[in-house]
Amino acid sequence: MVTETPAPESNGAARTVDAKPMDKVADIGRDIGEYIRQQRNNAKISLRQLSKLAGVSNPYLSQIERGVRKPSAEILQQIAKGLRISAEALYVQAGILDLPVGGPVPDAIRADTELSERQKQVLLDVYESFRRENRAVNPTEPTTAESEPEE
């Protein structure tokens, strides 16, 4: 991975350097922390409330949200329970699981920040049930991956 950083010896001009592996880990920690904070804000609960609901100490949860600490899968599961979202959503965000295969509709549903994780999952389930029904009625129709235009 290549990143742009200001050269220390210059007057702020950017130079290209290889990112260190630990920088990548820090980026993942920041990403999951930002995602958790966003979900907490969407749920309209305080850091202290989530700490109690998840059974995670307030300082540790704060460090996770700030990207200082990278939580384990077990901690993510506790946080997901406190937020009432799927642990899978946090695992994907943290890079523990790969993003489920999609297409334009599932990707748009997952990207919508105004929907809760539960609402997204319900929409995805309904969408997939319609697609399964249509494939059963007309099995010669191509699947999503086959019908998507190449870019």
From TrEMBL:
Pfam families given in the database record: HTH_3
Keyword annotations from UniProtKB, A to Z: DNA-binding
UniProt GO molecular function: DNA binding; DNA-binding transcription factor activity
Region annotation (Disordered) ranges: 1-20
Domain HTH cro/C1-type per the UniProt entry, residue ranges: 36-90
Keyword Cell wall biogenesis/degradation part of the UniProt annotation: no
Record keyword S-adenosyl-L-methionine present: no
Entry's Gene Ontology cellular component terms: cytosol
Name recorded for this polypeptide: Helix-turn-helix protein
